[in-house]
Write a sequence for this structure.
């Protein structure tokens, strides 16, 4: 009987307590944090696909697991969205017991997703876990997919900020937003809004409107690559008003002062940020404040 | 004879002048800017692979074209690294003449690569080009691959800055670096150094050393995913000294104040940035300046 067979039908942490942890430091267990990319399988890399196929156990938020076809002999450990560290610990315990574990994550696992949670759980957890072979398989992160769909808005320097204040004070977020606005970065906002955080995106966009031109293109890219994909390009003043229409599946991108539109007849304009910069961002910012 | 057959063996812009531009506004030409990802094919998405296979013409910097297996009936238009706008115009002319063109780019085409150049050429060029169906296929960009290989250094807010001052003044770059340091972003430096720009990376790292702890982890990730991959994790003080060892194939990542190492016996430590932030970046920055 192989060491992990008791887990074949496990779906919660309770079942894992059956495993004798660290019973074999030479166990062949491994853990791969896999980026599924946004949307459909055509943005899933062959390396990520191979990691999923090789896994004995898949661990992840239920909607991500639902994107992976069932496979005989492979156990799924689904969980809610709010338990990243517990999920990471569960995956490490499975790997420590000799299982071949894939922790699945939307987009890229290193960008506001499961990879950091796995290393946090590793650092705080059983020292024997450090012998587990841990791999991270990158994926197409939401801002790259949103940028590709709309043109080339990330053609210049840019930053990515999670608007969730669950793990950091709102003051830290606004400090970073102000710095990014003053330095004229294109700004990608992850986790822009949720039922529990209804006002943060509106405040962030209003802050942007104090620094950047009212015509600055703002992209609301929802569920890119999925059947319910919805893209909107709004001038900043309208984006402030429309903040409440975003949700957790939306990537919001605020253009830099140089970000431009190319009009097209009967179609959405392209958005792009030229690679060249001629003005100092400090001068721009001071000129508007 | 199909409209593009004269181009089958064309390799430079000279031959393209043979094409009657805009002879058919209903031509079925198309242009896809394709991200090859870093390194080997296991990080190439199926969508990017399909775009490459469907193309009649591949346009790109020679080393990127060299990564694509030859295909009968497919013409390659290779060029030097320094001619992005000319290359983009060439690709648009081919598409306008009815060809199915793939412009290939390393990593993600939207991040300091060919997508912005294509839209710049489109905006400045023949108005008929706006009828061309243009698609961007995203790819794994270098910072995601470098992050995946080393742990989860992008677990918190981050920015990406091109250190090339070919298209923007050095003053703009240092303004952005200072803002990113003060706001405690993890900082990804693209195009860190070249023969023509030998001192910029050293200056950027020295600037970082005035703001961040000497022990801040700095990643030099060279040619990730290729046979000559080389990864180094250095404390900031040593990274300043080692700047000259980077090259154009290197992605340099400067940790935030919260970025940490997890030691492993006999192996490179993992690098990760916890998702939680407790201190204000302003306070941190003021405390060190």
């Amino acid at each position: 009987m192989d060491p992990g067979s008791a887990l074949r039908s496990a779906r919660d942490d309770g079942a894992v307590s059956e495993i004798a942890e660290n019973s074999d430091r030479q166990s062949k267990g491994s853990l791969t944090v896999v980026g599924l990319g946004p949307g459909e399988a055509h943005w899933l890399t062959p390396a990520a696909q191979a990691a999923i196929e090789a896994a004995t156990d898949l661990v992840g938020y239920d909607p991500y697991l639902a994107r992976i076809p069932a496979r005989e002999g492979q156990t799924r450990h689904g969980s809610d969205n709010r338990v990243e560290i517990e999920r990471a610990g569960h995956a490490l315990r499975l790997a420590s017991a000799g299982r071949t574990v894939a922790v699945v994550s939307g987009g890229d696992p290193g960008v506001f997703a499961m990879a950091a949670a796995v290393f946090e759980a590793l650092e705080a957890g059983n020292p024997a876990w450090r012998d587990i072979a841990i791999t991270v398989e990158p994926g197409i992160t939401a801002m790259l997919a949103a940028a590709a769909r709309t043109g080339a808005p990330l053609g210049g320097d840019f930053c990515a900020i999670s608007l969730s204040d669950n793990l950091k004070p709102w003051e830290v977020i606004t400090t970073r937003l102000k710095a990014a606005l003053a330095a004229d970065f294109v700004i990608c906002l992850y986790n822009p809004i949720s039922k529990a955080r209804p006002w943060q995106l509106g405040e962030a966009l209003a802050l942007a409107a104090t620094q950047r031109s009212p015509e600055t293109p703002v992209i609301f890219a929802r569920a890119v690559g999925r059947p319910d994909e919805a893209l909107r390009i709004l001038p900043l003043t309208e984006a402030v008003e429309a903040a409440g229409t975003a949700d957790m599946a939306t990537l919001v991108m605020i253009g830099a002062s140089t970000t431009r539109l190319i009009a097209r007849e009967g179609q959405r304009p392209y958005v792009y940020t030229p690679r060249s910069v001629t003005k100092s961002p400090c001068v721009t910012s001071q000129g508007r404040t």
